[in-house]
Amino acid sequence: MSKAVKNPTFESALGELEQIVATMEAGQLPLEQLLTSYKRGAELLQFCQGALQDAQQQVRILEAGTLRAFPTEDDNN
To answer: pLDDT tens digits, the chain, 77 residues: what are they?
Structure first.
């Protein structure tokens, strides 16, 4: 299992999480390593969820300030 990166990107954290899940699903880990993997996976999941929430908030701010819906043909009738 790779070591924790100080400032991981969303993509690197997600990749590591996917690797952990695949390893755990294989069912070949000893109990101690399984628990360590689970803990690391939970940390990565929390990081990824936080990154997604931050991105969603930024999109909301952008939409509120500058983005508008394009008119559709139904709007013109």
So the answer is: 445 557 889 999 999 999 999 999 999 999 999 999 999 999 999 999 999 999 999 888 888 877 666 677 766 55
Output the CATH code of domain 10-62.
1.10.287.1040
Domain ranges of the chain: 10-62
Give the C-alpha distances (Å, rounded to integers) separating 41 from 11, 24, 70: 14, 10, 41
Strands (E), 1-77: none
Phi-psi region of 27 (alpha: psi -120 to 50; beta: other; left: phi over 0): left
Q: Which residue is it, tokens 């969603």?
A: 56
Angstrom distance (rounded) from CA 37 to CA 68: 44
Residues 6+ apart with CB under 8 A from 16: 2, 8, 40, 44
